[in-house]
Amino acid sequence: MKIFLDSADIGEITALCDTGFVDGITTNPSLIAKSGYNILETIAEICSLVDGPVSAEVTATDFKTMLTEGQKLAAIAPNVTVKVPLTRDGLMTCRALSDAGTDVNVTLCFTAGQALLAAKAGAKFISPFVGRLDDIGRDGMGLIEEICSIYANYDYDTEVLVASVRSTQHVVDAALMGADVVTLPPKILTALYHHPLTDSGLDAFLKDWKATGQSIL
Ligand code: G3P
Question: What predicted TM-score, i.e. pTM, was given to this entire model?
């Protein structure tokens, strides 16, 4: 399963890319706003730091302007994936960009029916928002299970990119279900390393080791 970082913060991205676990980046208009920097410059800088796909989202809502924005974003670097919302115009934009050879990530997906349409529109990635579904008392990971089954039934190439991840359990569940990608906020990627038994076990090993007076180097 690929791990993407859900961030537009250059400092965070640089630090976490050093771990070797980051296969790509997703951004959205809220993350760009939070960064405080220009979208075109930010996406260009991220693309220079990361070899994998970097999702950059359009902000228009009509097909014609979305397509123009998407073409402009795609021209920034070869690893840009254009992100479009799951609307009628967004899916038309997905079809047009995909036909022209640009990878598209269809975002703000909340039903399996929407995910089916995105696959039929040629999306490279579908981004179901599991955390936001959980927030309203629905079953976010249940949606991932449905989409994985539907895509497998028809051999769709669209990759299931689990977004709006709130916990390490979401990551484990996504892997068990065979999702292709999770995009993680930095704090969830960092949390994946940790377990209290790892910490206490290491403390005990180091205490015992110190008592030996030995040194490996
Ligand atoms: O980038 C899309 C998605 O991951 C946003 O997550 O936490 O704002 O629901 P969140």
Answer: 0.96
